Each structure stands twice: as C-alpha cells, then as structure tokens.
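Comment thread on ticket #2218

A.B. wrote:
> Attaching the input chain for the structure job we discussed in standup.
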Amino acid sequence: MNNPPSYMYFGHRPVFAHRMMGVVLPVVLVVLTVLTGLVVTQIRRNAVDERLAANTRETVQLDNSVQTVLRWCEARVTLEPQRTIIGAPASTLVSAWNAGSANWTDASSLNFSGGINLLPGLNANPSCVVEDATCELAPPISPTGQIGASACAGNGDLDARWRKFRLTARVGTPAPDFAGGSRLMFTQSELRLFIE
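C.D. wrote:
> Ran it. Output below, let me know if you need it in another format.
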C-alpha cells in the first residue's frame, strides 16, 4: 500500500535518523516555573511598596495636622495668656505625652471643636495641653532690669512679667491594626512671653 519500496525487498520499515527525546517539556516547565516565581516576587514587592507608601502618607498627614493644631494653640496662648487653661505642672513632663493622662480631658486641655472637619483623616477633636514652665526660666531675664516677686522658689531675680509655656498638641487617626484602634501623634513647642 503506502509502504516504501525497501519494505518489499528487505521486509522492514525505515528507521528515521532523528528521534525526539522529550526535552521540550522539561525546558518549558522550567521556564514557566522561573517566570511564575518572578511574577509572584514582583506582586509581593508591589504589596510591600503599597503598604510603605500608605504608611508614609499617613505619617505626613498626621504630622501636618498636629503641626496645624500646635500653631492654633500657640496663637490662642499668645492672644490670651492669662486666660489659657493650664494642665499639669511642667515638672511632670511625661504626663503630657501619655495618651491616657487626665491632662487630655476637656477641663484641662484646649480642644478645637470642629477641627476634626478641618483636618482630613482625624477621628477625634484635636487638642492641646498647656503647661506653665515659667520656673524653668533662668534669671535675670528682665530687659528693663526690674526685679519682681517671682512665683518660683529660688528665682527671686526673675521678673514676674515673664512667662514660659510648654504646649503639647495631639491628633489621632483610625488605625484598625493597633490595639486601641487609633494612632496618635504628638508634638511640642515652648513659648516665652513678656506680659505687661
């Protein structure tokens, strides 16, 4: 039928010189495995980069918000230093940084109602604790050379018109990954005022 002429004379079929040994399948599988590994690695790297970018964005946003609140507090104290709510004494510095401190109650801190709507991403009204740190001023500090009655023991040379305030601002943002459910950021500054 379709047998070559040699089959009729010699009685066997022809043997082909090149025979496939099945090399293509292992090579393709190795290439696919390498490509899959590269893709998975790139996806993981992108996920980590996305988390780092989100963390950086949140940190910058919180820092901008807390700096804004601190400027509000400084303006409030500068405009009305005698009528400003004073928190814990300056000798207990750690109390202002403690989120659970009594200094952060409405009675002993400056709360900016409506500030949550002005600063994006916040979950609580921004607030400030103002501490009277006048006793930390080193005498003599009066520009006129006048000596007044000092409220601080041992600072008799300090003019009573000088005041020093330490301001600590706090803002918070939702953080479901934290146990308390919110991430807080604090910042601090000092004001020295000469009050006439």
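A.B. wrote:
> Thanks. Noting for the ticket: The first strand starts at residue 110 and ends at 111.
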